[in-house]
Amino acid sequence: MFKILIAEDDLPLQKMMCAFFHLNGYQPLPASDGNEALEILNHVLPDLAILDVMMPGKSGLEVAEEIRRDFPLLPILMVTARDTLDDKRAGFSSGADDYLTKPVDLDEMLLHVQALMRRARAMTSHRLQVGETVLDYDALTVSRGDTVLSLPKKEFYLLYKLLSSPRQIFTRQQLMDEIWGMDAMSDERTVDVHIKRLREKCDVFPDFTIETVRGLGYKAEKT
Questions:
Q1: Taking every pair of C-alpha atoms in the chain, what is the biggest distance, in angstroms?
Q2: How far is the CA of 207 from the CAs of 105, 131, 132, 191, 220, in angstroms?
Q3: d(Cα 90, Cα 96) in Å, to the nearest integer?
Q4: Which domains are present in the chain?
Q5: Which tens digits make up the pLDDT trace of 174-197?
Q6: What is the pTM of this model?
């Protein structure tokens, strides 16, 4: 049974989330503040963490930063009532993989959790297959049959991220924060340049395309 850390200081909401995920086959690990969440992590490694941003003690942002330092592959879903672009940027910069704003629809949250866990399993395996195309995370290669393409790190990580969650839209800023990290203050056009290079290089792989979502960002589509 997959374990989910649920750090939420709104106790009625926390109990509702725990009951919901239990009914859907998960083992919830409830925490009422950031310090309690970190104490749980000292004893149990969950498969995913759901963090409320505004919590007593340590905030969800601070907890996410500590998780990223100690457990770099643990998926993090950030939940908050604050939905400005700056708030979302702070969440992604702290290490969050995904972001939901309150009030939260639990069925929608479950979809996000399932997508994050699928992506985490793909990242952990270090091998991702889309149709007959295989991405090797350790070798930084994309191959199909006898065709093997070696990519620079940033281009490979960008492609791997898009293909790990096909049809999910990623904003340019989100890709900057997650792929470039501390260099994310660079011009967002950096993403456009890397996408253009990927499209040119990956034209020989018919199993996927990289689509532009006007006004939002990019997504990968299986063909």
A1: 56
A2: 33, 6, 7, 22, 10
A3: 9
A4: 3-121 (3.40.50.2300), 126-222 (1.10.10.10)
A5: 888 778 764 445 577 889 999 999
A6: 0.61
